[in-house]
User: What shape does this take?
Amino acid sequence: MKHLSIRTKITLWFTAALIIVVSLTYVVILSVSNQVYQKIIRDNLIETVENNIDEVEYFSNIEKENLQDDVDHFISYGTGFLEIDDDFLNAVNEVYTALYDSSLTMLYGENPIAKDTSSISLKDSIIQTRTVGGITYYIFDRALSEAGLEGLWLRGVVAETQGKERMSSISRLSLILLPMLVLLAIIGGYLIAGRTLKPIKQISEAASQIGKGDDLKRRISIGEGRDELHQLADNFNEMFARLEASFEKEQQFTSDASHELRTPMSVILAQCEFSLERERTPEEYVTALSVIQRQARRMSGLINDMLDFTRLRMKTDRYPLEHYDLSESVASLCADMALIREKNIELSYDQIEKGIIYRGNKALLTRALTNLISNAYRYGKQNGHIQVSLHQINETVIIVVADDGVGIAEEEQDKIFRRFYQGDNSRSAVGTGLGLSMAEEIVRFHGGKIELQSKKDLGSTFKIILPK
Assistant: This one.
């Protein structure tokens, strides 16, 4: 079974279920049909006997009757005669009827088991049974009550085999038709399963080709539809789109990281070659080593940022969550960073709501806020202002960092959270280009988001929204 296709497995399971259902149906048909036919036989017996009651008449003087064209049978009975219709007592549907007197003497008619039923007493309107030669017979007696017919009885007899013969015919027909229907159903099920699973095969083939050819731009096309298979294909296409976007981002990240690392590495190599070309003065060695140290620290910071970024994306246990006083943490950070006063920029934080307890990673959130404030200093104007606020609305915590700096052009606002992106080439030497993307990833790690409002030359407002 492990090596069979889904289509074959479905067909086999369908066949097994169908055989079980058909078998049960066959048993039910036989059981119900047998009961129905036995009832039909009894009803037919009673109906035949009741119909024959009107076919027996009594005449006290037959000479007074006009019997010129009559071909009925006449039997002397008592002081008169019995007239019996010419088709009376003929076997109807294998039901035999005979006329008896009260002493069980047959006067007219036919009874195939007359000898074996001579000891069965007459019981009005009651069906009795007698088994003769392994065959069960139903016997129905009916007393005649018309004038002159007192003491006469009609006895009807029918064999149970009448129903069994019909049942045998049904059984033979069922044994022919049901397997044919099962075979047709199996063939139809196999074809339907193939047609139904065709989209899955297309999905599998497309996914395989994408996997083998690394063609993430390829999509699965199975036509229009809204069923589960079309939803599956749409989900696969969405997954491929995300994979393509992620792959492109990783390629861009690798390219950007290589570019960012190439510059300090080139400087380090240049300084090493410069120092090794010939004998240098102690001052020149110190200068070269200082340059190498500065570039090495830049590389180290960049590598650490990239490692932290990767750990955040992987959601490792390196950053546990705990409850702490967020208000106190934000106020303490702002108090420290207010001492920077770079470009004579003033940092105010008087709008921090007190007593907000938040469950998160204190070090990460401090880093995210530090990045935003540092960014505000870096791109602030001389004698500018930075305003940091914190407040809670229902179950949401909001941290706002607003500045009146150079602002961000509208066309660049959807790019600034990209890794290594720096909007102004003139400032490309400042920072690593990971500050905002790191802040966004930290906020996303806590289940929140960052919103930006900015206008060129008027300043920027970054809003951190965290679910509590």
